[in-house]
What we know:
Blueprint: E1 2-8, H1 23-27, H2 29-42, E2 46-52, H3 55-65, E3 69-73, H4 84-93, H5 103-110, H6 112-121, E4 129-132, E5 145-149, E6 163-164, H7 167-181, E7 185-189, E8 193-201, E9 206-213, H8 228-232, H9 237-240, E10 244-245, H10 252-268, E11 274-282, E12 287-294, H11 303-310, H12 315-328
Helix pairs in contact: 2-12, 4-5
Amino acid sequence: MQLLIAYNASGDGVPDTEPDPDLISEAAVLDEVNAVHQAALDLGMESRIYPVSGFYETIEEIRHASPDVIFNLCEGFRGSARFEMHMAALWELMQIPYTGNTPVTLGMTQDKVLTKRLLESKKIHTPAYQVFRSVPAKTMLEFPLIVKPSREDASLGIDTCAVVHSMTQLQQSVEKILVKYKQPVLVERYIDGREFNISLMGDPPIVMAVSEIDFTALPAAQPKITSYEAKWMPDHPMYQKTPVSCPADIPADLRERLADVSVQVYTLVGGRDYGRVDTRVDHEGRIYVLEFNANPDISPDAGFSKAVRSAGLAYRDFIGELIRTASNRK
């Protein structure tokens, strides 16, 4: 088995005098790359790491390498997350089996608005929302609201000020995202409650574990959200005060309901190999689906890997299963 681990080289190659904090999550892919590489070597495979930085060079070099399987860790191309689906499409055009979700699923779920419309079509609860392409003069939604880019992942654009309580705050937040991310802005009703992540694997999907973000250490006035700081900045108070509990200590009936809705979402968007469903549960026990995370972070310390270990599967065997599944598609 000759494995090629493909990932997007960080940034766009343009010098930046003031580095963007958003690049932290992009650079973190190296943790995944090194872990997958070591797991493949432990399994007796020939493994090569390949950073994707150019289009024509990539086609030529991968054609020459002729791998049996590509482990796809490309989350974009030259600093742009919107090209994540295009990288998976390239492997398909080259007729090389690859791990993870298909271009259709990657593109569809990266567009949070499209995902919400699909959820609504199947009567799966998702927070009420509006989409703004310019700074709004009014909103039909009731405050508090959460403001986020509509086509990013890894909590990009969701900072500690993402929850707003007034029209002025809403306008300021929408304008900030429009300027920085140059895409429609998704504004949702903020669901005050608990946050659960459900990790799934395979096709048909198997629920690996239900995890909960523990917000109990946050100040009472602090919105209970998983911001960018909480995900990617270990020295930030939001990171330190929002640990993950896996498996979540919840009643069996809630676990079953979360598992059931997650399987519905995974199937609806055509999930393949692995994925994560992010949810909120309000004080009345209603489940709201926030999004489907296709090809989530699988570095050893990430939430998905914790779910894998919680299910009794060693990290090495998890990586081996993804590679074997991809190989069988050939």
